[in-house]
């Protein structure tokens, strides 16, 4: 109820291909630092979502620090809340789910480089792949503070600056849970030729609840 309208505004701008890589944080701390599920079917009220198994296998071979692991995903919500949007827009949806539980910039950059390499190989044969990085922005401070902090992170994303995003999150103590997935996504996007990003919508939970004392921020951004 708080973030759905932001996500919906983003997905309304997209042409969703059959194959999507969805990166999310690991909120629970369970499992391995970089978890992938190459052969698991997901289920939502809209039906089942099949895995993109060959694409996941390519990533596992290219980047051994990814490990097949269900524990990191079992109680994680950040991918499953994206799936209904994708299912509505792409009836043949197949996904590669990756949970990133590390803040190590080098590892996140290398993950992005691996994503770019595997996607480039697939795109040479005409296959389109969408990368989705799932994250909230700053958590549980007042609305004014959250908007200031979030703007600093958003500026780095709009500049396609993966290192700058990592640095500002660390320096300003921005509790953006999925900055790791965003760093990997930005790294891959730049390598694959992205030239700009657009802020589609920004909001905080206070816009819905009316409580401005303790909010969560949401930013919907498209990178092209």
CATH topology: Protocatechuate 4,5-dioxygenase, Chain B
What is the global morphology?
globular
Classify the secondary structure makeup into a structural class. alpha/beta
Please state the CA-atom Rg, rounded to the nearest Å: 16 Å
Quickly count the helices: 9
Poorly predicted tracts of residues = none
Give a nutshell description of this structure.
This protein has helices spanning 4-11, 53-62, 71-74, 83-89, 105-124, 143-158, 162-172, 179-191, 206-209, and strands spanning 19-25, 34-36, 42-44, 47-51, 67-68, 94-100, 129-133, 139-141, 197-204, 215-223. It has 224 residues and is α/β, with parallel strands linked by helices.
What does this structure look like?
This protein is α/β, with parallel strands linked by helices and 224 residues long. It has a single domain, classed as LigB-like (Protocatechuate 4,5-dioxygenase, Chain B, 3-Layer(aba) Sandwich). 42% of the residues lie in helices and 23% in strands. Strands 1, 2, 3, 4, 5, 6 and 7 form a seven-stranded mixed beta sheet that branches. A three-stranded antiparallel beta sheet has the order 8-10-9. The longest helix is centred in the middle third of the chain and has 20 residues. It is globular and about 45 Å long.
